[in-house]
């Protein structure tokens, strides 16, 4: 294995040399786990990458402390209970030089809603109207106190719809027309992206002139590249490499729990997981401290409830599965009829308590620890590490039992719960139908003050812990290696805000 990694790193070194001395020409180099397959911001699984590279922007953005700030918009303000008014920055332009006016923004949002399922969920029930060249209103069918978070979502990046019209092949650099501080100059799907400073950007011009982003799917290879100093920023480093990276010269290891909760989503159509008591038992049987320490190398922390990774709701740390309680887990399984046999394994009516667990991305170590902990409970877990595409295909077929996934918890929180718990929600993988959700979302949106609004949100979180559509485990650890010559890197709880930032600089 070490020889294979050495060859892989050598190949990347050769590629870097072929590209010239990037330190001398002002270029920043990145090695990342994944590069998108297209440059169309209306395509699923593309927008977060464009955001991460500094290519795309939304009307607003979420700060590290969880609050919202204008981005492409100059201002975004709630002007009536059901209406927000957006004023665009004067003179803002797309990468092509085309003006970003109110009509272009409205058209962009409409295209995203039509072609991207999650964007459609976010914009459902909203009416976007052009007031004048720089002003729009966004009106909801009811009170909408969280609409600024919605308009900050990475799925709603503003793009020049005319550039994507009539596409018969995946969008490439010629079509990619967005507004971020960097524009795409080269693209080899799932291999490499090259970027150049955007001369039309509305903000202070970045000091970095060019960027090369290379996909290195193997996490151990990324760690070797970081240790060898062959990339300026390396993301999603494996927990096994953290001790060595912490001691390495010439780089800083930046680690911060993300504002998303790694959770094991459970399919109630699976015979072993249909009973709510079984799902609760699995949640109580998780020793989250141990998972965070073993799988996260100290770069993450326990998440007793789904909302616990959101810094705006510290009360969520006191909800859900706040302790490791294998005795309670055992009693719940006994009540549900899944009793231990002489061999220590649990079964009901002769059927073993067994299910499949699929993990992907950086969540392999988490899956391994959970498999061990649930084995101690008497459950047989068939663990597999698969590609994200296979995870999605299994969901579409309904041929799955349990899968890890990590939703962002920052944003329009009532809507994020609705997406996971309401019929038709794009994140409702188990097709749960909970009538309480609509009432609680309505209460959060119509609350007279922040205290009442927070109370409704916390009730949604408690409902999530009661029904257990997913077992919360920990925020996704973010281990990023940043070379010493890079200045201005600021950690952010949103993973896609953690790579290319306009304030980055390259020193000696």
TrEMBL record:
One matching Pfam family is SBP_bac_5
Keyword Metal-binding in annotation? no
Q: Write out the annotated subcellular location.
A: Cell envelope
The UniProt entry, under PROSITE patterns, shows: PROKAR_LIPOPROTEIN
Please tell me where this protein is predominantly located.
other
Provide one Gene Ontology biological process annotation.
Answer: peptide transport
Alphabetized GO MF terms: peptide transmembrane transporter activity
Give the residue spans that cross the bilayer. Answer: none
Q: Which PANTHER family match?
A: PERIPLASMIC BINDING COMPONENT OF ABC TRANSPORTER, PERIPLASMIC OLIGOPEPTIDE-BINDING PROTEIN-RELATED
Which family, according to the similarity comment? Belongs to the bacterial solute-binding protein 5 family.
Q: Does the keyword Nucleotide-binding apply?
A: no
Q: Which residues form the signal peptide?
A: 1-23
- The species this protein belongs to is Pseudonocardia cypriaca
The Gene Ontology CC terms held by the record are: ATP-binding cassette (ABC) transporter complex; cell envelope; periplasmic space
Name under which the protein is recorded: Peptide/nickel transport system substrate-binding protein
Domain named Solute-binding protein family: residues: 68-417
Q: Which domain of life is it from?
A: Bacteria
Gene3D superfamilies reported in the protein's UniProt record: Dipeptide-binding Protein, Domain 3, Periplasmic binding protein-like II
């Amino acid at each position: 294995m070490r020889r294979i990694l050495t060859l892989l790193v050598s190949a990347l070194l050769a590629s870097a040399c072929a590209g010239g001395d990037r330190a001398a020409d002002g270029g920043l180099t990145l090695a990342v786990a994944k590069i998108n397959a297209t440059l169309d911001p209306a395509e699923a699984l593309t927008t977060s990458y464009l955001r991460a590279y500094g290519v795309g922007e939304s009307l607003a953005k979420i700060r590290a402390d969880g609050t919202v700030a204008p981005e492409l918009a100059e201002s975004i303000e709630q002007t009536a209970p059901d209406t927000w008014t957006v004023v665009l920055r004067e003179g803002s332009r797309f990468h092509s030089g085309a003006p970003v006016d109110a009509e272009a923004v409205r058209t962009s949002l409409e295209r995203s809603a039509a072609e991207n399922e999650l964007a459609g969920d976010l914009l459902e029930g909203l009416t976007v109207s052009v007031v004048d060249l720089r002003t729009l209103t966004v009106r909801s069918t009811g009170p909408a106190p969280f609409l600024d978070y919605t308009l900050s979502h990475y799925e709603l990046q503003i793009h020049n719809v005319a550039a994507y019209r009539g596409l018969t092949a995946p969008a490439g650099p010629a079509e990619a027309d967005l507004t971020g501080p960097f524009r795409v100059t080269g693209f080899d799907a799932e291999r490499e992206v090259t970027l150049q400073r955007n001369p039309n950007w509305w903000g202070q011009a970045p000091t970095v002139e060019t960027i090369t982003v290379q996909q290195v799917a193997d996490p151990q290879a990324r760690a070797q590249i970081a240790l060898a100093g062959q990339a300026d920023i390396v993301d999603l480093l494996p927990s096994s490499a953290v001790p060595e990276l912490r001691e390495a010269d010439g780089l800083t290891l930046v680690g911060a729990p993300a504002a998303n909760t790694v959770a094991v989503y459970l399919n109630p159509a699976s015979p072993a997981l249909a009973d709510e008591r079984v799902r609760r038992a699995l949640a109580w049987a998780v020793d989250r401290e141990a998972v965070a320490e073993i799988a996260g190398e100290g770069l993450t922390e326990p998440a007793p409830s789904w909302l616990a990774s959101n810094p705006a709701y510290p009360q969520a740390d006191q909800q859900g599965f706040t302790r490791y309680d294998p005795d309670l887990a055992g009693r719940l399984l006994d009540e549900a009829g899944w009793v231990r046999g002489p061999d220590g394994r649990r079964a009901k009516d002769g059927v073993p308590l067994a299910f499949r667990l699929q993990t992907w991305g950086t969540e392999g170590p988490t899956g391994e620890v959970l498999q061990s902990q649930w084995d101690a409970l008497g459950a047989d877990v068939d663990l597999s590490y698969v590609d994200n595409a296979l995870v999605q295909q299994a969901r579409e077929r309904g041929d799955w039992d349990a899968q890890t996934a990590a939703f962002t918890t920052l944003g329009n929180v009532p809507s994020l719960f609705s997406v996971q718990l309401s019929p038709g929600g794009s994140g409702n993988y188990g097709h749960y139908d909970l009538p309480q959700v609509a009432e609680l979302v309505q209460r959060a949106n119509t609350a007279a003050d922040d205290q009442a609004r927070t109370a409704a949100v916390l009730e949604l979180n408690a409902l999530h812990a009661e029904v257990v559509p997913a077992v919360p485990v920990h925020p996704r650890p973010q281990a990023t290696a940043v070379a010493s010559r890079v200045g201005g890197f600021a950690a952010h709880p949103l993973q896609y805000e953690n790579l290319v930032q306009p304030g980055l600089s390259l020193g000696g």
